[in-house]
Write a structure and sequence with these properties.
3 strands; single chain; three-stranded antiparallel sheet; Multidrug-efflux Transporter Regulator, Chain: A, Domain 2
Amino acid sequence: MHNRIDQATAADRPDAAKPENGARPQSVAAPEPLLVDLTAAAALLSLSRRTLKRMVAVGELPGVRRVRGRVLVVLAELREWIGRGCPPGKRGRR
């Protein structure tokens, strides 16, 4: 005889929580990313990607991280900066 793995799903288990009235379980939203690329950051700021590249070059955009050649922005820092009215940053930082 072959060993068989019980293929019962979580919904088949008697101890599993079942939705009432046969409703489908709600899907869980994906967590918000910690880092976003320049395209997503540009969309949040209603600016072009090129403008953001310039801002990164002169140190005007907060939360910039370089990861394996990609320029990413910490979303929480970007939102905080937007909440403060987008004040000018330190120039000359690279």
